[in-house]
Write a structure and sequence with these properties.
This protein has 10 helices and no strands. The chain has 311 residues and is an all-alpha fold. The protein folds into 2 domains: 97 residues, no CATH class; 156 residues, no CATH class.
Length: 311
């Protein structure tokens, strides 16, 4: 059944992409109007003009905007686990708490100009800050380049940014905030009504099946081992993932995330001498797997089934 996932997502993506690109090619002659144009006519003209802009320019503009969103995500990653508002106070140094002036808070550029240090106390600032900004810029740019200005690209951007947020918070604090996962489920379900890559019923089944399956695994682990193997945050997160990419995508995410987590765990045990009970941030691996599945799930399944041509 999963083999149909590749063809299904590929077909929906091709339909959405061809629709976007055909807008710039289709033109109809309009009769001259003696009176002023209506608001609808003006809106249509603006849309047509936008369709004529080369996609590389749109992608570059999206990437520049993504840098700013990446800066906001950095603040959210730091503040949400501390239960601090993401909007107030203004950005501040995590060492000396001094307010960062706007000219020292330009994404990536300010980090380079200041040599990776606070402008006040001169303490080093983590390289992760500009890397997050560049990662989000890449998500924005590549999404627009691949799907154009569409609901598909918007959904991919929202999903990838949410996964990045959850991945880093889980890596730092071993928590997955409800303020992200629970609204994320609703946002994923809402976008499924306009996202051509995932049907609305697929999203609903994905949320229930994904969350339910992981809850069952956690319950069995608790009964067998007598201790929690994963928290409810992981359950809510996979429900959110299912709401965005459907039930087949959720199942593939669980498999791929478990595989990545297992490989990382083996490496940590072999190199750093960790024991088998060392707690890994499973949400981080789920987030990475979910973005891979959203962007390349169809291609991965096509490649996998190609390994077994006789089946």
């Amino acid at each position: 059944m999963l083999d149909s996932y590749a063809a299904c997502r590929r077909t929906r993506t091709e339909i959405a992409t061809s629709t976007i690109r055909s807008r710039g090619r289709s033109r109809t002659q309009k009769p001259a109007s003696a009176g002023p144009r209506s608001e609808l006519e003006r809106a249509m003209t603006s849309s047509e003009l936008l369709a004529e802009v080369p996609v590389v320019y749109l992608a570059a503009a999206a990437a520049a905007f993504g840098l700013c969103i990446g800066s906001f995500l950095n603040a959210a990653i730091y503040r949400l686990p501390l239960h601090v508002s993401v909007s107030k106070p203004r950005s501040f140094c995590p060492h000396c708490r001094a307010t960062i002036q706007w000219y020292r808070n330009i994404p990536v550029v300010s980090y380079i100009m200041l040599g990776g240090r606070c402008g006040e106390c001169k303490e080093p600032i983590s390289i992760r800050y500009p890397l997050v900004e560049l990662a989000v810029a890449a998500v924005f740019g590549v999404s627009v380049w691949r799907w154009g200005l569409s609901w598909s690209s918007l959904t991919a951007i929202v999903f990838a940014c949410s996964m990045l947020l959850l991945a880093l918070i889980d890596a730092d604090h071993r928590i997955l905030p409800n303020v992200v996962t629970l609204p994320g489920i609703l946002v994923g379900l809402a976008l499924s009504f306009v996202n051509p890559r995932v049907l609305w019923w697929d999203a609903m089944v994905g949320a229930v099946l994904g969350g339910g399956l992981l809850y069952l695994v956690a319950w069995i682990y608790l009964k067998v081992r007598g201790q929690e193997g994963m928290g409810m945050g992981d359950v809510k997160m996979i429900a959110m993932i299912g709401a965005f990419i459907g039930w087949k995508g959720a199942l593939l995410t669980i498999f791929l995330g478990s595989l990545i987590g297992s490989l990382v765990g083996i490496v940590l045990i072999a190199i750093k001498g960790r024991d088998w009970d060392y707690a890994l941030p499973f949400g981080t691996f789920l987030a990475l797997a979910a973005v891979i599945v959203d962007w390349f799930g169809g291609e991965l399944l096509t490649w996998y089934w190609g390994l077994f041509p006789s089946l």
